[in-house]
Structure prediction request, 231 residues.
Amino acid sequence: MSQPPSTPGLSLVHLVRPAQITGAGQPPLLIQLHGIGSNEDDLFAFADLLDPRCVVLSARAPLVIGPGSYAWFDVRFLPQGNSINVEQLRASRDTLVQFIGEAAAAYQADPQRVYLMGFSQGGIMGLTVALTHPALVAGVVAMSSRIPPQVVPWLAPKEDLTGLPLLMTHGTDDQVIPVRDAREARKLLESLPVDLTYHEYPMGHQVIPKSLQDALTWITARLDGPRRTSR
Prediction:
């Protein structure tokens, strides 16, 4: 697997898989976002399975919680539900927004075709960026994720969200982010003019071959289809 070093000066440490197929114009950019306690090596394990037209970056979250262990924001898992540090989430959202622009410029990628692919907390970050800064994102894959209620007041106007492509995948046996949280997110997204695809699988808090293949197929279909022009 190709792992060129990160371009220095960007806001987030990251791994890179260059586009495998190059054509006329700038390539699409796909940014992978790992979950809490993990790092940029995690999702990068299947970077070479992603559409070869894309420049793939796997970003490291900014908060250090241990050796090789990072997070986008602190979370406490409580019986009554998860408690998050909202200010850290907002700061990481802003850092990721900055990183998207930096990365598109540094890797000469198409700023109109930036996709985010996140697992768990990384999926939360992808959804948060897309729903608050929809002009920056061409689509999001959110695996085993949710939308914290604190994010709802930050949402962009509905007209700016029109046609925003979103894919959510979730396990019915997820013990970390219960499927009810994903279904609440689906309910919220169905009230918005986004282009939502939602799938559930008989799995836990994980990625299985079927859910991964559905994500890969979805990304390729977005690249093959017409560009979203309602921004």
The first helix runs from residue 41 to 44. The chain has one domain: 14-224. The chain has a mean pLDDT of 93. DSSP finds six helices and eleven strands in the chain.
